[in-house]
Design a protein that fits this description.
Helix 2 links the parallel strand 2 and strand 3. The longest helix is centred in the C-terminal third of the chain and has 22 residues. 54% of the residues lie in helices and 13% in strands. It is an alpha/beta fold. It has two domains: 161 residues, NAD(P)-binding Rossmann-like Domain (Rossmann fold, 3-Layer(aba) Sandwich), CATH 3.40.50.720; 92 residues, ProC C-terminal domain-like (ProC C-terminal domain-like fold), CATH 1.10.3730.10. Helix 8 crosses helix 9. It binds NADPH dihydro-nicotinamide-adenine-dinucleotide phosphate (NDP) and (2S)-3,4-dihydro-2H-pyrrole-2-carboxylic acid. Belongs to the pyrroline-5-carboxylate reductase family.
Length: 270
Amino acid sequence: MLDTATVGFIGGGNMGEALIRGILQAGLLAPERLVVFDVSRERLEHLEGAYGVVRAETLSACAQASQVIIVAVKPQNMGEVLESMAPSTPHRPLVISIAAGVPIQTIEAALPQGIPVIRVMPNTPALVQQGASALARGTHAEDTHMEAALTLFRSVGIAHELDEKLLDAVTGLSGSGPAYVLHFLESLTDGGVLMGIPRPVARDLVVQTVMGTARMILETGRHPSQLKDMVTSPGGTTIHGLEVLEKEGVRGAIMGAVRAATERSKALGG
Ligand SMILES: NC(=O)C1=CN([C@@H]2O[C@H](COP(=O)(O)OP(=O)(O)OC[C@H]3O[C@@H](n4cnc5c(N)ncnc54)[C@H](OP(=O)(O)O)[C@@H]3O)[C@@H](O)[C@H]2O)C=CC1
Ligand SMILES: O=C(O)[C@@H]1CCC=N1
């Protein structure tokens, strides 16, 4: 269904822009096939100017022009957006929500009966086609709808179909995950600076170390523990660093962060 579809974005903030940019860079759709509506005129002007996408003057115009509608507003704005959108969906578009925590049932109940809905949890590395998304289908979403949604999100990274009950956990893991990785990356860089390395060099070394380590997992298929053991010489430097991380409870702290974010996602759904 994507071959001829116009894809509408309601909400063109951080995540909306990451998807727009990623989809265009991947060459999946031409800019004239992307229509955007945002309450912020500034955002609309930015998106139109930066990417050449079509700007809709109203939410209804965006919905009416689109066979696939990606709703990318904050969970708190979902109620008003769905209410405004409902009368503009007689053409039965596929509605894709990326809002954290908002259950499919809530979205379906706010729209006319029979509208296909897919709930997705993407993440910001979609901006550079390195996103990670999980998708769950609603009552009326058929295989063609899921295939179209998977094609969209796979154009900007990897995507898995999952049962909806796991989407809050995905939100806590890979949805919020880039922030944890950036926090770690920033701390590691500060560690280098603390030891006297100029910041730009420390940043470069850290980014390459994180990227190289992730690629090593993917390309060797080995367990992270095995790869960690390769770095860790008996009585050497690494084991002394690891001892500090274990004493400070970093592993438990990271697991706790995923749990806290998952619980927050559940709470956002009401
Ligand atoms: N950021 C992330 O890493 C991720 C976010 N998400 C989800 O994506 C959604 C968007 O998040 P994010 O992009 O970070 O949020 P942003 O606040 O950056 O973007 C939302 C945009 O929608 C606009 N908006 C608000 N109300 C309306 C409306 N009624 N109609 C049209 N546009 C409206 C906002 O304008 P204004 O600012 O003026 O209100 C803003 O420009 C959220 O539901 C979030 O849970 C999912 C995965 C990752
Ligand atoms: O922080 C948030 O609520 C959103 C959802 C996942 C990432 N950012």
